Amino acid sequence: MKVKICGLQNMESAQYAVKQGVDAIGFVFAKSKREISLNSAKSIISQLPKGINKVGVFVNPSREMIDEVVSKTGINVIQLHGDETPEFCATLPYPVIKAFSIESVKDLERIHHYSCEYVLLDGPKGKYHGGNGISFDWGLLTSFDFKNKKVILAGGLNSENVRSAIHLKNIDMVDVSSGVETNGEKDLGKIKKFIATVKSTELIL
Questions:
Q1: What pLDDT does 5 receive?
Q2: Which end of the chain is less packed: N or C, by CB atoms within 10 Å?
């Protein structure tokens, strides 16, 4: 099971996450309390190993904005968290993760309109399009046919409930942000515990 930590904003937490075994790190380029500047993202990404996926998180961006962020920072995966159309996603020459807010099976069925390899399933929208720390009914996933799409589970995950997520069918990656924070800041102890919980549980399965 792969682990993605989203909303990192400084070198210390990014490098610490890498040492603990994280597989992907998300950088937010949208209105959010976790939004990061191009210069800060570039500085952090330049120090990360090649094997770590550097994911840029966007909400309803223009193609020009995506191209600028990629060229200036070194982002190598695009995560779209807004109302981007299947057509827009298909035009991008980068690996794309399309995020969906899930409240019912109808929300899950929307993923089949998109050609991207990865989909991210998040909780209901709150103040922001994502990163609200709200989970959804994981029971919706048990009998759903994802048709070979790779699934990233997000929304309300933390070291206490992630074991249950790992046991779900068809999940390829878990994505955490607020679940490894204390007072709105990334907490190194929580990062360590979350990654260790995922990796140790995976060994048991």
A1: 98
A2: C
The pTM for the full model equals 0.93
Number of domains composing the chain: 1
The active-site residue out of 89, 107, 116, 122 is: 122
Q: State how far the Cα of 132 lies from the Cα of 123, in Å rounded to an integer.
A: 8
CATH number for 153: 3.20.20.70
Catalytic residue at 67? Answer: no
pLDDT per residue as tens digits for the range 51-73: 999 999 999 999 999 999 999 99
Could you list the residue range(s) of the whole structural domain that residue 143 is in?
2-204
Token digits of residue 147: 């048709």
Q: Is 6 a residue of the active site?
A: yes
The one catalytic residue in 6, 23, 116, 175 is 6
